[in-house]
Design goal:
12 helices, 35 strands, 8-stranded parallel sheet, alpha/beta, 10-stranded mixed sheet
């Protein structure tokens, strides 16, 4: 292992190299090295034409993260699960100046292990009947991408997708400490990302592993069990010289309650204001059951954990994130948690997810159509990607989609009811979703699916998408049915949503969870 500067690290990336990155948000992302690569390209036009691979949502939606590589000609092909945070690269993809593919997050982070072990690729059902399926586009996010590398195959009489392995030339990783032998720890990282798998894949391919750290330690100073990447897998270490290069998240340089060094008093977490987002989060929380292992996505789903904390119901439920965190309270930062109970490797978490061990997941929805299809991955020319959405919806026993019924509406919540002040101009219930991130007609394991908005709760029935609950204070025809781009049925047994969730103080979550748990127990005993 050799200690070098960020500028020297940039020189190690060859033209047309396949470059792997790790992490989520800004965790795991070596921003000082990325800035040096961009600077070198602007001065010399090298490295050019690289194939850049990322597993999760990386960046801060502004200047930090992979968006630093958004220079015309630097990146020729870009693959990720969620790419929306790298605005400059998204812009180039939209202009057709690079190929862009989006694949399920669990596929990308676990494909590194297939490459590391010398196996031919990953055979799985994850991605079938979504935009990743070659019959629906193969994960291509722009016309320049063309046909993707994955294949639809038949194995033992069933359909699978095969994601082939590929050689990797370089890894760009960030840790906290390195000793003089290159042993790397993740002390300040708010998750244990896929750094070991990526480093192993790169070394199997004969490539180079570059790790940016905050601190350099003497040999023998790092506790062996805290070492997450052994020095034998590391070629170069860059000790950061710029504070902006080592942030835990887009909004936090270092919070010990996110990385497990301290526990923060739960009562110090600010209560949520009463608005339509809290209404939705409360109604989603009412789907929980005691003893459940639950995944919460970003956006409104994060608020479900905060509602559970406000209602003093966290002790009987284990919240988790796809980044590999168990317990604690959801944070507003991407897939981070306050007061986590356990951290596991990113890839290992997707073994648990893909193995169907989650009891429930709550995820956002951008577009919804009459077949129950959901789109979260592309909106017009805005390329986003699905993140872990596809893995989660194809493997979890019960999942709840949530979001406002329309976008940009003005509403008033209080006194046990909802009032629409001004209807928004963005229709989310559309005739056909732009991309199928979840296929409502092809649930693979007979899962229970619920769609929750501030105005109503919907489920798929034999007659299509059907309203089964409505909010107090709204006009069903005007505020729900006329806002849908397709015929939306109303159940003859439609029920009112709990007035308590539209009030300043609810206090009804425990009763809902008790009821769900009792019902689940009766069902499980049959």
């Amino acid at each position: 292992m050799k200690i070098i500067s960020a500028e020297e690290a940039a020189l190690q990336i060859a033209d047309y190299a396949t470059v792997a990155s790790v992490g989520m948000g800004l965790s795991g992302w070596p921003d000082e090295i990325a800035a040096a690569i961009a600077d070198r390209y602007e001065r010399t036009s090298h490295p050019k034409g690289i194939r850049f691979k990322q597993g999760s949502a990386l960046g801060d939606f502004r200047e930090r993260g992979p968006t630093r590589l958004g220079l015309d000609g630097l990146v020729a092909e870009w693959t990720g699960a969620h790419v929306g945070a790298a605005r400059k690269l998204v812009g180039l993809a939209g202009e057709g100046k690079l190929k862009c593919f989006c694949l399920p997050q669990g596929i990308i982070v676990n494909q590194w292990r297939e490459i590391a072990a010398g196996r031919p690729g990953l055979l799985t059902k994850i991605g079938l009947h979504t935009f990743v399926d070659p019959r629906y586009g193969g994960g291509a996010m722009n016309a320049a991408a063309g046909k993707g590398p994955l294949e639809l195959v038949e194995f033992r009489g069933e359909e699978y997708l095969f994601y082939p392995s590929f050689p990797v030339d370089a890894a760009l990783i960030r840790g906290t400490y390195s000793d003089q032998a290159g042993n790397i720890t993740f002390d300040h990282e708010p998750m244990i990302h896929e750094g070991l798998a990526v480093a192993s894949a790169v070394k199997r391919s004969g490539g180079i592993v570059i790790v940016q750290v905050e601190y350099l330690a003497e040999n023998g100073a790092l506790p062996p069990k805290e070492v997450k990447i052994p020095g034998r897998l590391v070629d170069y270490v860059v000790v950061a010289t710029k504070k902006d290069a080592c942030w835990q998240s887009p909004s936090e340089y270092y919070d010990p309650s996110l990385s497990g060094q301290r526990r923060r008093p739960v009562e110090t977490i600010e209560p949520l204001p009463l608005d339509e987002r809290k209404v939705i989060a409360r109604r989603c929380a009412a789907e929980l059951s005691w003893g459940s292992l639950v995944n919460l996505g970003m956006g409104i789903p994060v608020l479900v954990g905060k509602v559970a904390a406000e209602e003093n119901c966290l002790d009987g439920i284990c919240l988790s994130t796809e980044s590999g965190i168990f317990g604690g309270v959801s944070s507003d930062r991407p897939s981070t948690t306050i007061n986590a109970d356990a951290f596991i490797d990113h890839g290992a978490m997707f073994d648990i997810i893909d193995g169907g061990r989650l009891d429930m997941t709550c995820l956002g929805m951008g577009e919804l159509d009459g077949d129950g299809n959901v789109n979260v991955s592309r909106f017009g020319g805005n390329i986003v990607g699905p993140g872990g959405f596809i893995d989660l919806t194809q493997s979890t026993r019960k999942f709840v989609f949530c979001g406002t019924l329309t976008g940009k509406s003005r509403m008033k919540v209080g006194g046990g009811k909802l009032q629409i002040i001004e209807e928004g101009g963005i229709k989310k219930l559309v005739k056909h979703v732009q991309q199928i991130s979840f296929n409502g007609r092809h649930t693979l394991n007979g899962q229970e699916v619920v769609y929750i908005t501030e105005r109503c709760v919907m489920k798929m029935t034999g007659g299509g998408l059907t309203v089964v609950e409505t909010a107090p204070g709204i006009d069903v025809k005007r505020d729900i049915l006329e806002q849908a781009g397709f015929p939306l049925a109303v159940s003859p047994d439609v029920k009112p949503m709990d007035e308590g969730i539209f009030s300043e103080h609810w206090g009804g979550l425990k009763g809902s969870i008790d009821k769900n748990h009792s019902g689940r127990g009766q069902h499980d005993s049959k």
